[in-house]
Amino acid sequence: MKAYDGMYIGGAWRPAAGQDVIEVVNPADEQVIGTVPAGTAEDVDAAVRAARAALPAWAATPPAERAARLSALRDVLAARADEIAGTVTAELGSPLKFSQAVHAAVPIAVAGSYAELAATYSFEEKTGNSVVHHEPIGVVAAITPWNYPLHQIVAKVAPALAAGCTVVVKPAEDTPLVARLFADAVHKAGVPAGVFNLVTGLGPVAGQALAEHPGVDLVSFTGSTAVGRRIAAIAAGQVKKVALELGGKSANVILPSADLAKAVNVGVANVMSNSGQTCSAWTRMLVHRDHYDEAVELAATAAAKYGERIGPVVNAKQRDRVRGYIEKGVAEGARLVAGGPESPRETGYFVSPTVFADVTEGMTIAQEEIFGPVLSVLAYEDEEDALRIANGTVYGLAGAVWAGEEAEAVAFARRMETGQVDINGGRFNPLAPFGGYKQSGVGRELGVHGLAEYLQTKSLQF
Ligand code: NAD
Questions:
Q1: Mean pLDDT score across all residues of the chain
Q2: Catalytic residue numbers?
Q3: pLDDT score for 389
Q4: What's the pTM value of the predicted model, to 2 decimals?
Q5: Distance (Å) from CA 226 to ligand 1 centroid
Q6: CB of 172 sitting under 6 A from ligand 1
Q7: pLDDT for res 1
Q8: Same domain, residue pair 164 and 194
Q9: Out of 85, 252, 366, 411, which could bridge 282 as a Cys pair, Cβ 3.0 to 4.6 Å?
Q10: 306 confidence band (pLDDT: 50, 70, 90)
Q11: Measured on CA atoms in the order 210, 225, 372, 150, is the torsion positive or negative?
């Protein structure tokens, strides 16, 4: 147990304004592993002031120099990859291998991609008798969740710095340690004082103070739809730009011509990875009725294999929430074919990998985001029925389509109301825009589209 001190503000670790702390718990064994200061509006104000003060010089820094700092940041993160993975495993509970392959590796790739984009992006263009300048939007408030704790910070901070913005990050309560590690990395990379600032604290206190601060020009938020809605309302009051990455309830559509075993196995792996705590997880598997029984059997077998390997969910509240959804699924008439609400271990916030069959569209488990290792398998009659079910939620973040021919899958994917679709198991691409249709959010992260979120245009006429 370690008592971590201070907030990273204006290029140094400074004592927090208040005395309150947040306990960080290892969800695998329920032990307190550390405490961090619970920031107040006073800390937030100091951080926003530091970011404002640093803005003019950073905005005027040539993109090549900004790129050099991001490249140095990538290198520091790469050199500390093991420490990052160990920290995420300790505070989030994900198995170490997954922490190494995803929680550490993806942010390194994303930081690298923005080092490259900062160096190559055209911050100026000509149209007719005008020159259009793409200028940094200003001071960015980045409010992030715990499920991919470093990735979600880097997916905001790297493009913001590439654009010439300065940033204040408020990380999730459950995972502040990797955020502190990131602040150290930013420092070591030689990013000027005040360009990046970190305030740990509770959402309704530090998070809200940050979103409400008049010195912030853009709020970039990733988290639940409920909090996203509040943040959008606050921003609207100040006519301030927001970017929202919210929840999802994505469909994995297996067309009759697909390789069924592959589609089901990859689909189950997608839902179970990170203990089901992935906003873009394909938590609804849609199978043609002729292949339904076989798919259910394959899914149950695949899920059972995850029993030993799966990590805990992040905290006791999340475990109880997920178990509540499993109980609701049973109560509403879905058929449990793997897992269930009972805890598989005495200690730690573990949930059994769970698969429901005979799920119908109207059921709660088919509509609401569970954010745990729970898969619902639904049957469809024909392609139109599959499309109707796939599009039949308030969300639209991701999805998958499987078919014998790529063109058939693409034709279906083009009709889906969602921001990302993986075709026949297509791999994650850190350059592809990521974000939601409908209530899954506003704006896009990653790649060039993610950079554009942090820019505004000024046109000069000649
Ligand atoms: P959450 O909304 O409770 O918290 C997210 C962040 O917002 C945290 O830092 C929290 O402290 C802060 N916060 C909470 N209340 C606040 C307030 N009133 N004002 C300002 N900030 C506040 O979400 P969570 O439980 O941490 O994360 C899970 C949710 O995030 C899921 O719904 C998931 O789908 C979503 N998510 C979406 C994406 C995406 O890219 N679309 C990615 C990851 C997670």
A1: 97
A2: 245, 279
A3: 98
A4: 0.97
A5: 8
A6: yes
A7: 87
A8: yes
A9: 252
A10: confident
A11: negative
